[in-house]
Amino acid sequence: MARVVVIGAGLGGLPAAYELRHLLPRSHQVTLISNQPKFTFVPSLPWIGLGLRSLDRIQLELAKIVPQQGIELILEAVTAINPQLRQITLKDRTLDYDYVVIATGPELALDAIPGLGPETGYTQSVCNPHHALLASEAWEKFCQDPGGIVVGAAPGASCFGPAYEFALLAHHTLRQKGWRDRVPMTIVTPEPYAGHLGIGGMANSRWLIRAMLADRHIDVMDNSAIARIEPEMMYLADGRSLPFKYAMILPPFRGPRFLREAPGLTDAKGFVPVLPTYRHPDFDSVYAVGVVTQLKPIEPTPIPIGVPKVGQMTEEMVICVAHNIALDLGVISGQQIKPTLQAICFANFGDTGALFFADPLLPDSEGHRHRAFTTQGIWVSWAKTAFEKYFISKMRMGWTMPWFEQACLRTIGLPLVEPIAPIQNSKLSIQN
């Protein structure tokens, strides 16, 4: 009997546990460890931050849905991992494992800029449920005495979609209240241009995003680095300053401390290096999925930024890792597989939305992709809302990715995984 442990119960961890339980006979144990008691559909947190939706609508109690699937659930924080000994340390015990899937999601590097973050700084974020609730409380106070709004991302950030989503949702909300003309709005981003998204080469995204922001009278400061933040004042590295009454700034990500402290497991930022199979290059028992994986920046930028790892990519990684572990255990036959890494991002702007698509995320050596485009329309907002409901239902019921979902994607030319030749054993990336 093998014990497979999944660390993290978010968009990568919970589906990974379900996929493993689906593939592995009950003679093999699947254990899910989470430092949070609830699953959260993170893509909807911008709505929570603006008080447009209640948090309980996008959360599930893990204790009510996980054990009934035949998965052991441990609601504790991991304090250490030893990949050499194949051991995980919790508060008062140690677990041995045969395989571990690291799906922790990120730790927020709020110490990257003085004054960043809601707990010890002067800005909000919507990167986790707690921060989204704090952002909502701050938004309620802001609405009692509105003023300037600054939305954006710090240098080193890798997830830019929520910043545009938050800014355009804020615009829509203020317009409905009849206050928009009283509230100057600015986006500050380290992207070389608005709409780069950490991806680059996204066809018309640059022009579409700029047009949407200009149409809504939202100023843009791109290729800009925030240096420090003080109460109601933001200072940029080039000497400019921005007053604000409300600021939502996305921080850089890094891997959790227990990963960074494990010798040889991660890079300096705590991201886990992976082979094309999403196995660690030095530890055969370690796999990783989601934001915590290490991906090389697609192109150099004047201000360093990271690479986004969106939900579609994470689901591809999950299917790949579960398959390859089952193959290792002799449960299934065939070849190892790797994800195709297509980036699909739905952004809900209230009265419209935007779809960003890159296939694949990582271009070839000449910088080419099969397809890349951006489109907009109210249907995108409807599609995101529908997908939220679908995904939460899927997690509630313990479904893996249904065959019809995969078939639909293949029909429109979006296979999630592809076979990998045994000789391909080089790292997918060497830096984040």
Strand order of the largest sheet: 5-2-1-9-19
| Class of secondary structure makeup | alpha/beta
* Mean pLDDT across every amino acid position: 92
Helical proportion, percent range: 25-40%
Number of strands: 24
Gap from first CA to last CA: 36 Å
Largest sheet: 5 strands, parallel
Strand content: 15-25%
Radius of gyration: 21 Å
Q: Label the overall shape.
A: globular
Number of helices: 10
Please, could you describe this protein's structure?
α1 runs parallel beside α8 (311-328). The protein contains 10 helices and 24 strands. It starts with a strand and ends in a 13-residue tail after the last strand. Helices cover 27% and strands 22% of the residues. It has helices at residues 13-23, 45-49, 62-65, 129-144, 161-177, 205-215, 257-260, 311-328, 378-397, 403-411; strands spanning 3-7, 29-33, 38-40, 59-61, 72-74, 80-82, 87-89, 94-96, 99-102, 107-108, 149-153, 185-188, 218-221, 226-230, 233-236, 241-243, 246-250, 253-254, 286-288, 337-339, 343-348, 353-359, 371-376, 417-419. A 5-stranded parallel β-sheet has the order 5-2-1-9-19, with helices on one face. Mean pLDDT is 92; it is low at 423-432. With 432 residues, the chain is α/β, with parallel strands linked by helices.
